[in-house]
Specification:
Helices cover about 85% and strands about 0% of the residues. It is built from ten helices and no strands. It is globular.
C-alpha cells in the first residue's frame, strides 16, 4: 500500500473518531490533510462524502433530541450557501484555494474559541439560523468544514449542548450532501481518483473510527477530546495554508 494511501486512511480514521466523540470535527480534522494529500477539489469531495456517513451514523443514536424547527431553518440556509461556496472553489487555482481553505479553517477555529469567552448573545430566530446555515453551507462547499459556523451560532445563542449536538448531525448530512451535489454540478462531475481497494479501505477505517470513538467517548472527557480535535485541525489548516503559499512563490 502506498504511503499516501495510508495517510489518507489515517486522516479519515481520525476524523471519524473526532465526529463520534465530540459530535463534530470530521471536516476540520480530515479536511486539511486530505487537501494536502490529494488536491483541493478531490480532497474536499472526499471529506464531504465520508462526513455524510459519519454524521448519519451519529444521528441514528441522537435523533430523539433533535430540534427540528431549528434544523429546517439551518438546513435551508446551508443548501443556499453551497452555491457560492462551490462557485468559488471552482474558479480559484489550486494554490489560492489551498490558502483559502487553510485561512477559513484557522479563522473558524479562532472565532469559535473567542466567541465563547466574550459572553455575547444574539437572538435565536429564523434570520440568525438562516444566516448561520448559509455561512456553514458556503464553508462546507469551499473548505469541507461547515461545523464551526453553526458552532459559533450555538455559542452566541446559548443553545443547550445536547440538543445542539443532536441537531448538528442531520444538518451536516443535508448541508454536506448539498455541497457534494453542487460541487459536482459546478465542476462537471470530477470525483477523487482512487483505486477500488482504497474506497473499500476507506469504508473500513470510517467504521473503525466511529466504533472506536463510541468506545472512547465512554472513557474520555468531551472537553479533552475537543482540545485534541482543535489542535489537529489547527495544524492541518496551517499546513494547507503553508503549502498554498509555497506553491505561489
Amino acid at each position: 500500500m502506498e504511503p499516501v494511501v495510508v495517510l489518507i486512511l489515517f486522516a479519515v480514521f481520525l476524523g471519524a473518531l473526532s465526529q463520534r466523540v465530540t459530535g463534530m470535527g470530521f471536516g476540520l480534522v480530515s479536511g486539511p490533510f486530505l487537501v494536502l494529500l490529494l488536491d483541493p477539489f478531490s480532497g474536499i469531495i472526499l471529506v464531504n462524502i465520508c462526513g455524510i456517513v459519519a454524521a448519519f451514523s451519529v444521528f441514528t443514536r441522537t435523533f430523539a433530541e433533535v430540534d427540528w424547527p431549528s434544523f429546517r431553518h439551518l438546513a435551508l440556509g446551508a443548501v443556499i450557501g453551497t452555491i457560492p461556496g462551490a462557485l468559488l472553489a471552482s474558479v480559484l487555482p489550486t494554490p489560492p484555494l489551498q490558502i483559502l481553505i487553510g485561512l477559513l479553517i484557522i479563522v473558524s477555529l479562532i472565532s469559535s474559541l473567542t466567541l465563547g469567552r466574550l459572553g455575547r448573545r444574539i437572538p435565536a430566530n429564523v434570520g440568525t439560523r438562516m444566516g448561520a446555515g448559509l455561512l456553514s453551507g458556503a464553508m462546507s462547499a469551499a473548505a469541507g468544514a461547515g461545523g464551526p459556523a453553526v458552532s459559533a451560532y450555538a455559542v452566541l445563542t446559548k443553545w443547550e449542548q445536547r440538543s445542539f449536538a443532536a441537531t448538528l448531525q442531520p444538518f451536516l448530512v443535508v448541508g454536506t450532501a448539498s455541497a457534494v451535489v453542487m460541487k459536482v454540478i459546478v465542476h462537471g462531475g470530477v470525483w477523487p481518483h482512487l483505486e477500488p481497494f482504497t474506497w473499500i479501505a476507506l469504508g473500513l477505517v470510517l467504521v473503525a473510527g466511529l466504533v472506536g470513538g463510541d468506545r472512547l467517548a465512554r472513557h474520555i472527557d468531551v472537553s479533552i477530546a475537543r482540545i485534541g480535535m482543535l489542535v489537529l485541525a489547527f495544524g492541518g489548516g496551517v499546513a494547507a495554508l503553508v503549502k498554498g503559499v509555497f506553491a505561489l512563490v
